[in-house]
């Protein structure tokens, strides 16, 4: 925290002198020529927080296409993750990387083809967003929902032309919690007559965390269905733990339950939870026990075993992530983006030291309330995701007790099955669930083209 105090005066000065509106970016280091789309970056002040955003205007018809607010999960993962790996019109040129600032290239199947997208580093402490006070770094699920709501309102006041178009909220992973709270805040604000009124039409949740118990319990169900554990262990777990696995503890759980769960944990220890079909990458240095230690890239990207991208059979998904560190931490990149130099020490894709309190275990009641508001909703999941399994997502949707209007069926891209979908409706509220075949967590990172087609159809009210 000492480093934070050293920057406080500088940060306050930045905030006081910041002009309304953002910075139009026409070129970026690593990209050849001018950007073929309109990119604006900037900050919006929300109390003690300076929230950084990337706004990409629709490449279709920006006066009529919807506006999508998007932020990533974690909590603490930068919206740049969504822009570069999931939903945006840029991607890294991985196959030809030879060092230095990574090269960028245009990606044609971007969600910005058919919608304006406002990517925000939320909550504070994520990406390039920062606090001007020591206390401002601390945030919770509840506060994150309010902080992003206030950000959105202030951004729209500065960009009033987008108040007229349809508004959708999109989040993935852990942000299913705060994103649900955000949608609820918008609905309540509109009903209370707060201005500006936001033209909310719906929301999109990718592999979302909604209920802690359902999510944890679904991992056992998914592991059994996909064949990671056998019938005997599954039945033992279900009976001895009463099919409840969120708080297994040696001192409070039965010995049979605890032992079965420990055995299960050992069986899946070396599985890549984000995509069970992909390898789990390892540190270059062994632990004291002599075994290679599995860790996330975010802890130290420079010390990771990164397979050469030209050798697909040795490919490590985390190589993609490493390139984002090298790119976003380049001073020339930050200057081009209009980042206030010195406000963020080291940019990280996902901030694991975020001062964040998880104060909401479930937003199921929020969704029950939203199901009476006539919104359009898309929920989707990769079918090889063990972090937030599709089994749990389908389970919490069933709790809403909606009427099925289009039963389970395949959906296609280029004549091939891209996944399966089911549609529900109740009093004007329409919820579509879609699985993405062969995708992990988050699905766009694995099946970017298919997810674009899913989004394009949904956002323009076509059947998926």
UniProtKB/TrEMBL annotation:
Keyword Signal among record annotations: yes
Leader sequence segment: 1-21
Stated name of the protein: Serine carboxypeptidase-like 18
Similarity remark: Belongs to the peptidase S10 family.
Gene Ontology molecular function terms on file: acyltransferase activity, transferring groups other than amino-acyl groups; serine-type carboxypeptidase activity
UniProt keyword list: Signal
Organism: Corymbia citriodora subsp. variegata
Keyword Secreted among record annotations: no
Database matches in Pfam families: Peptidase_S10
High-level lineage: Eukaryota, Viridiplantae, Streptophyta, Embryophyta, Tracheophyta
